[in-house]
Design a protein that fits this description.
Blueprint lengths: L1 E7 L7 H11 L5 E7 L6 H7 L3 E6 L13 E2 L1 H6 L4 E5 L2 E5 L2 H9 L9 E5 L3 H12 L3 E5 L15 H6 L2 E4 L25 E4 L8 H8 L3 E3 L2 H15 L7
Parallel strand pairs: 1-2, 1-3, 4-6, 7-8, 7-9, 9-10, 10-11
Antiparallel strand pairs: 3-5, 5-6
Helix pairs in contact: 4-5, 4-8
InterPro entries: Aminoacid_DH-like_N_sf, NAD(P)-bd_dom_sf, Shikimate_DH-bd_N, Shikimate_DH_fam
Pathway: Metabolic intermediate biosynthesis; chorismate biosynthesis; chorismate from D-erythrose 4-phosphate and phosphoenolpyruvate: step 4/7
Keywords: Amino-acid biosynthesis, Aromatic amino acid biosynthesis, Oxidoreductase
């Protein structure tokens, strides 16, 4: 039995396990199982692998996309540049880290892009944000990072005036604000300056329409949640685990 799984903490509302269970059934994939491994500290990663030597591949979610990297033997070029891993492949005694978030985000954003979508605001600074920044660079879109505690070139939410909002017509939420069960929370951007020229993208997918997206839609913006990105990154992980490698 080949085992795959997801590490993170907590994992009470994980997308991956249900996705792979359905995939295995739909595509008649036998001899495989996918499990959640909620480890309260990354130090337990080694113990997890000792307990389950049959693991062939793992996905990685909050809060370990960066913390897991020192435990790996190799990184793909993109994962090394991004500085975050969400997929680990186990082959020939080596653990190799990849980033399939960048594949999923790029493929789901690209069809929505218009000629005026040249500058983006990236809300948040975590591992997911790093993949988004890398993807935007690959797409030739410049970005400004927005953070509650601005460092390393990021700006604060207070700096988002009408001119900044008008100049940045893509806004990507990489924070967990608005995620179930805290559905009433949202990034504190000045939504009154959002227009129909804006594209709001939320990595959160539960609920399908977060408060962030709802407020954007109310201003006429195009909105997109993270569900398709999740499906695409999961499929890319499966491709990697089965030997159809990506540079990411």
């Amino acid at each position: 039995m080949k085992m795959y799984g997801l590490i993170g903490y907590p994992l009470s509302h994980s997308f991956s396990k249900g996705f792979f269970k359905e995939k295995f059934e739909r595509e008649n994939i036998t001899g495989c199982q996918y499990e959640n491994f909620p480890i309260p500290g990354i130090s337990e990663f080694t113990h997890l692998l000792e307990q389950h030597p049959q693991i062939n591949g793992l996905n990685v979610t909050i809060p370990y996309k960066e913390a897991v990297m020192p435990f790996l033997d190799e990184l793909s070029k993109a994962a090394a540049q991004i500085g975050a891993v969400n997929c680990i492949d186990f082959k020939d005694g080596k653990k190799t880290g990849y980033n399939t978030d960048v594949i999923g985000f790029t493929a789901s954003l690209h069809p929505l892009l218009q000629p005026h979508h040249t500058h983006a605001l990236v809300l948040g600074t975590g591992g997911a944000a790093k993949a988004i920044m890398y993807a935007l660079e690959q797409l030739g879109i410049t970005y400004t990072v927005v953070s509650r505690s601005p460092v390393n070139g990021a700006i604060s939410y207070d700096a988002l005036d009408e001119a900044v909002m008008a100049a940045h017509t893509i806004i990507v939420n990489t924070t967990p604000l608005g995620m179930y069960p805290k559905v009433d929370t949202f990034p504190e951007i000045p939504y009154q300056y959002v227009t129909s020229r804006h594209l709001l993208y939320d990595l959160v997918y539960n609920p399908a329409t977060t408060a962030f997206l709802e407020k954007g839609a109310g201003q006429g913006a195009v909105i997109k949640n993270g569900h398709e990105m999740l499906i695409l990154q999961a499929e890319a992980s499966w491709e990697i685990w089965n030997g159809r490698a990506f540079s990411h």
